[in-house]
Specification:
With about 850 residues, the chain is of the alpha/beta class. It has five domains: about 85-295, Rossmann fold (3-Layer(aba) Sandwich), CATH 3.40.50; about 305-535, TIM Barrel; about 560-665 and about 730-770, P-loop containing nucleotide triphosphate hydrolases (Rossmann fold, 3-Layer(aba) Sandwich), CATH 3.40.50.300; about 665-715 and about 800-840, no CATH class; about 770-795, no CATH class. The strands form seven sheets. The protein has a nine-stranded mixed beta sheet. Strands 17, 18, 19, 23, 24 and 25 form a six-stranded parallel beta sheet that branches. The structure holds 2-acetamido-2-deoxy-beta-D-glucopyranose (NAG) (5 copies). One 2-acetamido-2-deoxy-beta-D-glucopyranose binds near residues 627, 629 and 630.
């Protein structure tokens, strides 16, 4: 049967596999796009808390049964599909602490989001896309930014929320300027600030509770001194969390520190927090608020799978290994955990060679452990605990593994997991993937490592380990991951048995505060579960091995990142990218890829099915670097430009590459593409006229619709370019947009610009190496002896019939306007054809 090889080691087979992976955030601040939809209305930013009651007449709204919500104007739409599942987060700045914590939770739960700086320069992003809402939920890091928004934007946002049933989460952060008591402007809600609180309880009647279990009192002071509590007698407000003020010994009055607005006041449902997320219970309630306010569209189920790996069985140093009593405790604890996690079983990773390598007492522990072989799940490390990448060939590696097999009659690796391969930090970016049939799941750390074996020596003290468990990182890992595989080591189960302590305590905490249904599965089934749950994780994302020292260390010494291209020419098709490819190849410092053995043309690595073959395959397309400092490889695949996946993949492997795209009039491009298809005898292109193709409707034959999409979609320049910008946006110099028309009429000037863009020391004057061929009507490479080398034949007419032109002008109009804004933002010159097009629009 079996299982998981600990990847830390498997990975080191890497000369065989070389998989480096990196997952990028798919959501990135789209600062570029948003600021075009500004309303230049001056903002009032002063806090506008009207004087209110004094702090001593605080009282709490009594809990009451819930009003039925769906009748309220603009509550959650029942089908839930009128908005995109994207959260709009207004943060105070890109670096604000709370904003980052909000984003971290969204990312961990894999919820899509977009951040905007509020107040910004008055920018409210576009909220709708035709009939659809673009956001399912609004979050304000500082709710006052919402309350004090100018009337125009406020109206816009409120109307959006009501029409699309979109709710809001806001945090109230008291500062020196906040009045102690005030009314929240425009709401029947009073705030009392700068309080110290203690003894928090969850309102069991709160409708938003999902994961959160309201049973226990959190005793003791809540973190921070400047809490705000909410008070109202309006029936729209329902407390979620209640706490006492630290001073109010006698009265025992409970104040609302998190309040839910049921939408009865103005039709918008809200959840307001009187403090940031540093209190762990706020994180739990925040996750429930996300779920409730989005009608469970952004919601994790209550099912949680947990697997605990114990690595290095038999490997531990003499004196730190498990003795007979430790092994017994392990079995007992396992039985105890099974009462709450059915069939819970520790998953033991072993290296056979070190069996009986401890003291006599520890050797007896080994014997007992072995006698319990059926009690546990097992998986192999290397026989002698070596790093697989130190083996020169696969047969020797296999031999080593077979030794383990002789011992246990089980080996073989179909599923494995890793916490550092990819070596991604923070942990929320770890992803599973499948490579060569081996399924790799992400692994979590739980605060325990080989060296953490005694309570008293725990880094930061024993209370630090408790903090990690009780609402800290370990708790959050389980809260936010449907499947958690934890790494621990043999030494955590001898000595003070911190492993047993940790998981018993974690379980107890989870059962006390959550409704999570804890389960476990053996690795193979767990992998099935994982890839069912995250189907998009099957594809690896190859990462630049030289960007991470640990990756570089396990990479074959013979390989070099200089064998990767430093420039990608991404197309699109039929804009002149092929001519540019030829011209670039004429430069002595630039070397192009070898042509593909399969297609004889482009490699299409990042956009095509060859991506799963891995980076060794890709590197084979480039010569071994002779002199790494001067070799400058480039690659052209015109399919990259409009590919959904090419940009994120290219940025993962080639984060420092330069990108060139050639854009010509999309109308001209579409027509040229169609003619190209005809020239290559594409049956559909031969059958239908250009006008048929571009105007085909939803009812048209599928073949025609497919042709139409391939013809028109690459011309949505703004859409594709902004995707590339998202991944190559660190500095704008990385992407150069070349005007396809200028490339045609004055290629030498374009080449000059490109050489500067690439920072080539060796500037070549292309006036001397290119010649205009009057017969063909374009510029060609000038060869020795006055001959020219040209690409292809002269083409037919540049533009289609008038009617088609009119149709396409209109079709591409909005996209072209967006493109001009993008290029402006990038500080790039607008191509002549685009300027002309924009003039015609006005
Ligand atoms: C939350 O507030 C506390 C107390 O004011 C502060 O120490 C902490 O850094 C804040 N955390 C975040 C994430 O803003
Ligand atoms: C709380 O607010 C008071 C003023 O109201 C301020 O003096 C104090 O520094 C604040 N404390 C924290 C921890 O932010
Ligand atoms: C709520 O309180 C306000 C002011 O304290 C008062 O004017 C109002 O009548 C109260 N409303 C209800 C429903 O009790
Ligand atoms: C693998 O390496 C071993 C020892 O270095 C050698 O004896 C064996 O021939 C090698 N096998 C292959 C297939 O290269
Ligand atoms: C390698 O490149 C450097 C500068 O780029 C040059 O000085 C040196 O001569 C080159 N070496 C070889 C062997 O080409």
């Amino acid at each position: 049967m079996l299982s998981v090889l600990r990847l830390r080691r498997l990975v080191r087979q890497v000369p065989l596999q070389t998989s480096f992976i990196f997952l990028f955030l798919l959501c990135i601040l789209s600062v570029f796009l948003s600021s075009y939809f500004l309303f230049a209305i001056k903002r009032k930013l002063e806090p506008s808390l009207a004087a209110g009651r004094s702090a001593d007449d605080l009282y709490v709204t009594p809990s009451r049964p819930l009003p039925f919500l769906s009748g309220v104007g603009g509550t959650l739409s029942s089908d839930g599909s009128r908005t995109d599942p994207v959260v709009l987060v207004f943060v105070e700045s890109p670096y604000s602490q709370l904003g980052q914590e909000i984003v971290a939770i969204l990312e961990s739960a894999r919820f899509r989001y977009r951040t905007e700086i509020s107040p910004g320069k008055g920018d409210m992003p576009t909220l709708t896309d035709g009939q659809r809402g673009r956001f399912v939920l609004i979050i304000y890091e500082n709710i006052l930014k919402y309350v004090n928004m100018d009337a125009w934007n406020r109206e816009l946002l409120d109307r959006y929320c009501i029409e699309f049933g979109v709710g809001m989460i806001g945090f109230f952060k008291a500062n020196e300027k906040s009045l102690l008591s005030a009314q929240l402007k425009g709401f029947p809600l009073f705030l009392h600030s700068n309080l110290g609180l203690k003894d928090c309880t969850v309102n069991p009647k709160s409708p938003l509770l999902h994961v959160t279990r309201a049973q226990q009192v959190f005793s003791g002071p809540l973190p921070g001194d400047n809490w705000t509590v909410f008070q109202s007698n309006h029936s729209t407000y329902e407390p979620v969390l209640l706490a006492k003020t630290r001073s109010a010994e006698s009265t025992g009055l409970m104040h609302t520190s998190v309040v839910q607005d049921l939408g009865l006041h103005d039709g918008i449902q809200r959840v307001l927090f009187g403090h940031n997320l540093s209190f762990w219970l706020h994180k739990l309630v925040f996750v429930d608020a996300l779920s409730f306010l989005t009608a469970k569209r952004l919601s994790l189920s209550l099912e949680r799978f947990i697997l605990v790996d114990i690595d290095d069985i038999f490997v531990g140093k003499e004196g730190t290994r498990m003795k007979v009593a430790d092994v017994k405790a392990l079995v007992e604890t396992q039985n105890e955990l099974r009462r709450s996690i059915p069939d819970f079983t520790f998953n033991l990773g072993f290296s056979g060679k070190f069996f009986h390598a401890g003291t006599d007492e520890e050797d007896r522990g080994d014997d007992l452990l072995l006698s319990y072989v059926e009690e546990f799940w097992w998986f192999p490390h290397m026989w002698s605990h070596m790093q697989p990448h130190r083996f020169h060939n696969q047969s020797v590696l296999a031999e080593q593994m077979m030794l383990n097999r002789l011992m246990f009659h089980r080996v073989f690796v179909l599923v494995t997991s890793t916490e550092e391969y990819p070596h991604l930090k923070p942990a929320r970016f770890r992803r599973g993937f499948i490579h060569r049939g081996i399924r790799v799941l992400p692994r979590q750390t739980c605060g325990l490592f080989t060296h953490t074996i005694f309570h008293k020596d725990y880094p930061g003290g024993p209370q630090e380990l408790e903090r990690i468990i009780d609402g800290g990182e370990l708790f959050l890992t389980v809260l936010l991951n449907p499947i958690s595989i934890f790494m621990t080591h043999l030494s955590n189960y001898g000595n003070d048995r911190l492993g047993l302590f940790t998981f018993k305590r974690l379980l107890n905490f989870l059962l006390t505060w959550t409704h999570l249904k804890l389960q476990t599965l053996p690795p193979l089934q767990l992998a099935d579960k994982y890839f069912q749950r995250f189907p998009s994780d099957t594809e690896p994302l190859w990462q630049d091995p030289c960007e991470d020292k640990r990756h570089k260390d396990i990479w074959s010494k013979e390989k070099t990142c200089d064998r990767f291209p430093k420039l990608l020419l991404i197309g699109p098709q039929k804009t002149g990218a092929t001519a540019l490819y030829l011209f670039l190849g004429m430069h002595p410092d630039l070397s192009s890829n070898y042509p593909s053995k399969e297609t004889f043309e482009e490699i299409q690595f990042f956009s095509g099915h060859s991506y799963h073959r891995g980076i060794d395959w890709y590197m084979e397309y480039f010569p071994l670097p002779s002199n790494s400092s001067s070799d400058y490889y480039f690659e052209k695949s015109a399919s990259y430009f409009d590919s959904d996946v090419a940009a994120v993949r290219a940025a993962a492997l080639l984060p420092r590459a330069r990108i060139i795209t050639v854009l010509s009039d999309p109308v001209e491009r579409a027509f040229a593409w169609y003619q190209h298809q005809r020239a290559h005898a594409d049956p559909a292109a031969l059958k239908y006229s250009f006008h048929d193709v571009i105007t085909a409707s939803h009812n048209a034959p599928v073949k025609l619709q497919v042709l139409q999409k391939r013809c028109l979609a690459p011309g949505w320049y703004a859409t594709h370019l902004s995707r590339w910008l998202e991944h190559y946006h660190h500095d704008q110099v990385r992407i150069l947009v070349v005007d396809g028309q200028t490339l045609k009429t004055d290629p030498a000037s374009v080449m000059e610009k490109i050489q500067t863009f690439l920072g080539l020391e060796n500037q070549v004057d292309y006036h001397k190496t290119l010649a205009f061929d009057p017969k063909k009507g374009f510029w060609c490479q000038l060869l020795d002896g006055g001959k020219t080398k040209c690409l292809g034949k002269s083409k037919g007419p540049r533009y289609p019939d008038k009617q088609s032109q009119v149709f396409l002008r209109k079709y591409y109009r909005d996209g072209n306007i967006q493109l001009s804004k993008l290029l402006y933002k990038m500080g790039q010159v607008l191509p002549g054809w685009l300027r002309e097009d924009l003039l015609n629009i006005r």
